[in-house]
Amino acid sequence: MRRTTTVLAAVLVLGALLLPNTLVALEPNRFARIPAEAVIAAVLLLCLPRAARRVAAALFGLGLGVLTVLNLLDMGFTEYLGRGFNVVLDWGLLDDAQAYVADSMGGAAAAWAAVGAVVLVVLVLVVMALAAVRLGELLAAHRERAARGALTAATVWMTCVALGVQTFGVPVATRSASGALEAQAHRVADTLRDEAAFAKEAKADRFGATPGAQLVPDLRGKDMVFTFIESYGRSAIEDPVTAPGVGRTLDAGTKALAAKGFRAKSGWLTSATYGGSSWLGHSTFLSGLWVDNQQRYRTVTAGDHLTLTKAFRETGEWDTVGVMPGVQKAWPEAEWHGLDKVYDAFDLGYRGPKFSWSTMPDQYALEAFQRLEHGRKRDRPLMAEVILTSSHQPWAPLPRMVGWDEVGDGSVYDGIEASGVEASDIIADSTRSKEEYGKSVAYSVTSLTQWLERYGTDDTVLVFLGDHQPLARVSGDGASRDVPVSVVAKDPKVLDAIDDWNWTEGLKPAEDAPVWRMSSFRDRFLTAYGSTPHPTGE
Q: How far apart are CA 461 and CA 456, in angstroms?
């Protein structure tokens, strides 16, 4: 029993020292190496008296436990958001993750997941500390042999470094644990430096002092609709599993809109986020600033930097509204967005079922927008920001199109939701997730294009885009952060104004269509439609 306990302790400690921080690197060859930290720790523990040795071993074990938790968080964040965990900024996202699980799989599942996560963290810390103490006592009990072993291991480690020895394609000698801690430290330092630098950057605005009369004069009288489609990324158009269905939908939408007199041009934008944190993509697109973390988001939304949507309100010529079916709590950012009125999940009159995270189908949200705002007689045109949520992961169950006259209060979706695929059936299956993701994007695009066919006027201008790519399980490891963007209008002058953008005709951007950073769109759009720059903060 004692021997088994010792072996388990050694496996735990060595495993923690060699554990990578990405799932793609989690392969057996990663554990067939000699960690420098183990050799150094053994030497130090051999030099200490009993009481100090136990304390040092326990602290070493706790440190390994913390490192293990951070590596696991890095794995999760890389898988879902395409980046590692930031110990300064990302703790609040854990609450969002729990809310996502609750919305997708129910409150009980979220509660158990939270409890399980806390218990797991405590177990990792305690067990790792006990394992390190156990190994420290073993070293002390066999001091002479342990000293020879440590010396031999150190010699082998240095020889392997000098000769570049590898096994199974990876170096035998490694210092991955200390390297991971060093990377976390650099991440913290970079974050703190970035906070001050971005605050200064956000004060500079090419159009910050532009009078309202000189903002978007070439769009006067147009009903502007800016629409974000959740997780609508390049993968939806180019991945072999999703592309056929989404491509057919975009081609059909282009043809149907053309029959109604609409033309479209499309390109690519590189989003500031990936896999989630949609608000970072929204704020990047609207502000013209690169908002790729939570601190930047807090900084920019706390200031008065001009947003694309607020530019229309500043003219005094438009009513400005937001349709936000994903917002289910207080949303003070409405003022920063420049929205006079916001319709959240509780303001749209929906009486049907939720579809996993999405509070209501996109078709319903658009029909409610038509009923409440776009279809009303008004004294001046409308500028609307609309967020469509049906393509939010986990993409099960999914709504489907119904007759627009059948939408009603949403009760028509009861049977559709009940007969849909369960999230638990696809969440761990990459191929099925891709299939359902493709269906969800096709549904969202169809809802939007049919809404425009049905309700669009000669003065309706639609700009729609994805906020980010789907998570890596669907978009693939190393996928780009590009998302499609389209401008649709009947008035030929609207599209003539962006001829020099060299975008693709239709709703589907060509593979080689121009790719811009998402933060560049605001200034390009304002310039294209006649706005005069009056900089601030320069």
A: 8
Residue type, 327: V
Q: What is the pLDDT of residues 24-65, one digit of tens each?
A: 777 777 777 878 888 788 888 878 888 888 888 888 888 888
User: What's the sign of the alpha-carbon dihedral 97, 98, 100, 101?
Assistant: positive
- Greatest C-alpha distance within the chain: 91
Q: Omega into 533 within 30° of 0, i.e. cis?
A: no
Strand partners, 320: 383
Going by the DSSP 8-state scheme, the letter that residue 427 receives in this structure is T
Encode pLDDT of 437-482 as tens digits: 999 999 999 999 999 999 999 999 999 999 999 988 888 777 899 9
Domain chopping of the chain, boundaries: 2-191, 213-318+352-363+377-481+490-528
- 8 Å CB contact between 369 and 388: no
Alpha helices in 48-175 (DSSP H): 50-81, 91-105, 107-141, 143-163
Q: Which CATH superfamily is domain 213-318+352-363+377-481+490-528 in?
A: Alkaline Phosphatase, subunit A (3.40.720.10)
Predicted TM-score (pTM) of this structure: 0.81
Separation CA 398–CA 354 (nearest Å)? 10
List pLDDT tens digits, range 162-173: 877 787 778 878
CA dihedral 163, 165, 170, 175 (to 10 degrees): -60
Q: How buried is 45 (Cβ within 10 angstroms: 0-12 exposed, 13-18 middle, 19+ buried)?
A: buried
Name the nearest CA neighbour of 463 among 437, 498, 438: 498
Q: Which element (helix H / strand E) includes 320?
A: strand 319-323
Angle formed by the axes of helices 2-18 and 107-141, nearest 10°:
110
Structure tokens at 74: 């890095």
Four-CA torsion 23, 28, 30, 31, nearest 10 degrees: 120
- Please identify which residue in the block is written with the tokens 């939007």: 448
Cβ partners under 8 Å of residue 475, min gap 6:
233, 234, 235, 239, 274, 275, 469
